[in-house]
Amino acid sequence: MKQSSRSPISAAARRSWTLASLAAIFLSGCSLGITPAAVKNPNAPALQFVGAWGTKGSDPGQLDQPASIATDARGNVYIADAGSQFIHKFQPGGTPLLSFQDGRLKHPQSIAVDPGGAIYVSDPVRGSVFIFLPDGSRYRELHLSTRPNEENTLDVTVADDGSMSVLDVSAAKVFAFGPTLRLQHVWKPGDGAPPGPGRPRAIAAGPADDVFVGGISANSLLRYDEGKFESQITLNPAPVPNGSAGQSSDSASTALSSPPSSDASSNAANQFAVSGNYIFLADADGKTLHVWTLDGTPKADLDLSSQLGANQHQAPPIAVSPMGDLLVLDAQQSRVLRYHINL
User: Fold this and answer.
1) Which residues, 6 or more positions from 68, have their beta carbon under 8 angstroms from its beta carbon?
2) Domain enclosing residue 306, as ranges
3) Measured between alpha carbons, how far is 154 from 165 in angstroms, rounded to an integer?
4) In this predicted model, what pLDDT tens digit does every residue of 115-163 receive, in sequence order?
5) Is residue 27 part of a domain?
6) Number of domains in the chain
7) Global confidence as pTM
């Protein structure tokens, strides 16, 4: 089904309100209560497999070639599907809530959701970021000063204040937009930071509306405040204190007591998420997911091979919800793996 580009908001209102305020209009008739995350069980593993969901197909609510995953404040899950060109919204357990397409959106790639529920989707073919209101109607298409290229990656992230950052991987630069979607500045990851041999691969918003960039230096992420280098977070491979990662004989519990290894973290930089005081990072071979604190202290490893298989494959896209869920996008099987975080 095609979604029309309607919007009942006047042009004057669009200029004066932030996008988060616009999105709130569509939420005003709904309950805004958010169920708090469950009380942490000290005896549970740090990361515990809950289940998997998803159906292969190109129809609404199905996954064809899912490219990226995000969550909103309620824990709902959003997926951009490059195959069907659908943008999907699901309940945390996989019940479809919304699927829509847009005639201008040619190659949905990276997806993010702001605090008001608006949806941001990058399209490297058009060199743009599309913004949709919570009902799926298009609000705006932002054209970036970049060369349209299907082989490029435009990684989009939105901070709690509604500001948006877009990493252009080929050009190795970040477009920074304010809450009103006005371009504030363009900056290059690596400027002012310790030199590294790599190219920026991914970006994620974190606490205090800082952004984190991965891919430039091995074993580390770079933290920026409004485009200015703030710190380098070394993903420390030092041993985890006994019991801190949690371990269980339960077959559904796959958390490991060993810390992230230096070899694993050196290659993993293109699939990570920052939530609260933790960094979640998928290993480059797709077999392990690592968790660190923001100061680089290792907390846990999650063996993904039990669900994804033991063969080497690309690092899977991941997302972390405020409800305490870790979502891993298994693109090969067109499904989402759901884990509970107990940190």
Assistant:
1) 79, 80, 109, 110, 111, 317, 329
2) 40-341
3) 10
4) 999 999 999 999 999 999 999 999 999 999 999 999 999 999 999 999 9
5) no
6) 1
7) 0.85
